[in-house]
Amino acid sequence: MLFTKKTAAQKREDFRDMLADGKLHQFPGAFNPLCAQLIERKGFDGVYVSGAVMAADLCLPDVGIANQEEFVTRGRQIARVTDLPAIIDIDTGFGEPMSAARTVRLMEEAGLAGCHIEDQIMPKRCGHLDGKEIVDTQTMIQRIRGAVDGRLDQNFVVIARSDARAVEGLDQTIDRMKAYVDAGADMLFPEALKSEAEFERVRREISVPMLANMTEFGKSRLLNKKELEDLGFNLVIYPVTTLRLAMGEAERGLDHILQHGDQNGILDRMQHRRDLYDLLRYEDYSKFDQDLYNFEVTDTPTN
To answer: Who wins on pLDDT, 192 or 11?
Structure first.
């Protein structure tokens, strides 16, 4: 908190520069602020804040139950601890186009570098589940225009996500996304594409920056960095990866304690106290505190 060096505006500039440099940038999902700090420490390009992860963290399904305030709070918590640009999922914008505009303004004020808004109806569902329903193109255009009009900083990136592939097919999805670009979207997020050929076609037919979602156990094959680079994508997110890793290991550890009565056999699978303190920068906080309180208070009056 005390030792980040970049302002939100600088991080938004960094994100814009990334989208224009012709490279693929990796944004793992952070399930909490500490995870965001680890993502930065490991050398990734940015941080992604997933709505599905945030809902799961609240023990809720990803069906639009988590509210705008909860999303803004989590976005602020994560954006403030890292010098990397952080982007966030805002589902369908939390209401009508005016609500989408307000959501974008709140996310900008919270320090985020961008957000994506989708064309599902409410209640929405995970983009890789069957049975999704989407709004008509004109309704989504209004959402995008509201989101774009809501920002003050033109470097705040508005990403239009389309879930139409599973509902209308690829041809109509591409037509929709072209309309989304005309409405002002800075970037596109085609959700749940089914093959590498579909990724290639979307990239070929639309010129704005493009985001790929490499979520596990979904509709899309997990393409690696080089494959996505060769396809010309600008950004890849790994939205639920860190949560799945953490929860998987937590479950195995709890099972071990139930079976063996202690945690002695799993210490080597835990983050060591020294590594946690290093990630938290305990020493920096201690030095900061000592620099503030490096004097003595006496009872001797002074003039």
So the answer is: 11
Q: What is the average pLDDT across 223-249?
A: 97
- Domains (ranges, CATH) in the chain? 8-239 (3.20.20.60), 247-292 (no CATH)
DSSP string computed for 172-232 = HHHHHHHHHHHTT-SEEEE-S--SHHHHHHHHHH--S-BEEE--TTSSS----HHHHHHHT
> Of the listed 40, 62, 108, 119, which one is catalytic?
62
- Output the pTM of the full model: 0.93
pLDDT of the residue at 291: 73
One of 16, 48, 163, 186 is an active-site residue; which one? 48
Position 298 confidence tier, pLDDT thresholds 50, 70, 90: low
Assign 78 to helix, strand or coil. Answer: helix
Q: What are phi and psi of 102, to 5 degrees?
A: -65, -40
Distances in Å between the alpha carbon of 70 and those of 77, 227, 260?
11, 35, 38
Average pLDDT, rounded, for the chain:
93
Q: Is 130 a catalytic residue?
A: no
